[in-house]
Design goal:
alpha/beta, Rossmann fold, Helicase, Ruva Protein, domain 3, 4 domains, five-stranded parallel β-sheet, 24 helices
Length: 490
């Protein structure tokens, strides 16, 4: 049964969750939701069935006209809306918003402000709130796991469940098996998500959510080095019905060609020199779950046929065993930063295997196409790696001015270097980084040719690589015809 009271609290900081726990103690019974300031006006327009709504630490921003109308409408319905914050009303705030709010502004943070507003004793929660105590560290991870489950699995109630434990002053012995499982899942996969709110990341998340539901559809992930291909594969697995089964990642460039067939199919003892015991291959290890084949473009031609046969029938024999056939149910996700269509044309990749893998294509955007996400990516990485403090606006601006040919992985490299070396001047950090890595740039290593025809050919090839071999998109970007692009590629 729905409560008559609704507590809306912010995301991302422990103070918000603990403030909501104090409010729950005051009201005794309440529904609890995490809320962002951007969602607040539209949410208040549609909310029904409550007599009290407490907003804790959520900024009164978003569309001011919609916010004012929503609050006015709720007041007419005799709904009491309270706003509790450590920050005063913003300067732009109109009186028609203030007039329809029961506001309480006090304290150094929203936790203290809520304690004052609802006259709540906080002494028994201080150990839980302190991230230096054993139980405080556990609650920090519990909250992080709950927010991860909201972002990735749309589980809005996970956050509420943590807050209810806090309100009751529970130690971790009171957590359920399901909640412990959520934390373990977060500990394993919490570093595997895409941070950011740009249109590019929102579109990527939407595609992952839709593709994941089709748990048999093979996916070919295209992306430059460092864009997060394994992260995408992990999310596709975790959001599918196979999530409780194995996810096996295998880098096709990590094993010498003569051992690749054994790694795929497994082998019996004595199958070849050095096979001192029987061993299952990656297909058997992933049975029921997902096999992620990274760098699929590096797979030698002679092994491509083996992979094709397994994909077509789901059956194979271990090396050294031609009597007992193994049957597996595996979803295959492959990834590459290579131009596979060009490799097919050059005879370096089998066309039939390409079509078997390329049922669904997922392109990961390079970081330069969504620079606006850099502050969110930086905050998430620094929090995950427990780097102290926050970056200044000038430091973030410096990070956003760089192109990152190595993408997110290169950004992480810069952040770690700055932390280890104690560098605060990020402009200097990036200048030094460019000098160190100048030899990696194809333009610095190979000067552009004087011949216009050859320079045009090189440029068109690079644009095609940017669009993963899609000639139509490359032609549109270049402002020329598909035939012209083909001519220069040939």
């Amino acid at each position: 049964m729905m409560s008559k009271t609704l507590i809306l609290t912010g995301w991302g900081y422990r103070d918000y969750a603990f403030a909501a726990a104090l409010a729950l103690r005051h009201f005794k019974e309440a529904d609890i939701l995490g809320m962002s300031k951007r969602r607040l006006p539209e949410f208040l327009e549609s909310v029904e069935g409550y007599t009290d709504i407490a907003i804790l630490g959520v900024g009164l921003s978003g569309n001011p006209e919609r916010l004012a109308e929503a609050l006015k409408s709720l007041k007419k319905k005799k709904v009491k809306v309270s706003w509790i914050s450590a920050l005063d009303f913003p300067a732009w705030m109109e009186n028609d918003i203030k007039a329809n709010l029961n506001a309480h502004i006090a304290g150094g943070d929203v936790f203290e402000a809520t304690a004052i507003a609802y006259e709540q004793d906080t002494s028994d929660l201080l150990e839980l709130l302190d991230d230096k105590t054993a139980i405080g560290k556990k609650y920090e991870q519990f909250l992080d796991a709950a927010m991860y489950f909201y972002r990735n699995y749309q589980d809005e109630q996970a956050y509420s469940r943590v807050i209810r434990h806090i309100a009751a002053g529970h130690t971790d012995s009171a957590w359920t098996d399901a909640e412990r499982g959520m934390i373990e899942h977060f500990k394993r996969y919490g570093g595997r998500e895409f941070a950011g709110k740009s249109a590019a990341i929102a579109d990527l998340q939407d595609k992952i959510n839709r593709i994941a539901q089709h748990e048999r559809a093979r996916v070919l992930i295209y992306g430059e080095t460092g864009t997060g291909k394994e992260t995408a594969a992990t999310l596709l697995h975790n959001k599918s019905s196979r999530k409780d089964e194995p996810l096996i990642a295998f880098n096709c460039a990590s094993v010498t060609p003569n051992l690749l067939e054994s790694r795929f199919l497994g082998h019996e003892k004595g199958a070849f020199t050095g096979a001192t015991e029987a061993r299952a291959g990656v297909f058997e290890a992933a049975d029921g779950g997902t096999l992620f084949l990274d760098e699929i473009g590096e797979l030698p031609l002679e092994v491509q046929g083996t992979l094709l046969r397994v994909l077509e029938g789901g059956r194979f024999y271990r090396l050294g065993n031609n009597k007992t056939e193994t049957e597996v149910d595996v979803r295959v996700i492959a990834a590459t930063n290579r131009d596979l269509p060009a490799m097919v044309r050059d005879g370096k990749f089998r066309e039939d295997l390409y079509h078997r893998l390329n049922i669904i294509q997922l392109r990961l955007p390079p970081l330069r196409e969504h620079r606006e996400d850099i502050p969110d990516i930086v905050r998430a990485f620094r929090k995950r790696t427990k780097m102290p403090g926050q970056l200044t606006p000038a430091q973030l601006e410096a990070l956003m001015d760089y192109d990152y040919p190595g993408n997110v992985r290169e950004l992480f490299n810069l952040l770690e270097r700055a932390e280890v070396m104690g560098i605060s001047d990020y402009r200097h950090l990036i200048r030094e980084h460019k000098e160190i890595n100048a030899g990696l740039s194809p333009t610095s290593a190979t000067p552009a040719p004087d011949n216009l025809e050859e320079a045009t050919r090189i440029h068109i090839k690079r644009v095609c690589e940017k669009y993963n071999g899609n000639i139509t998109k490359a032609a549109e970007a270049l402002g020329t015809s598909r035939n012209t692009v083909r001519k220069y590629l040939e």
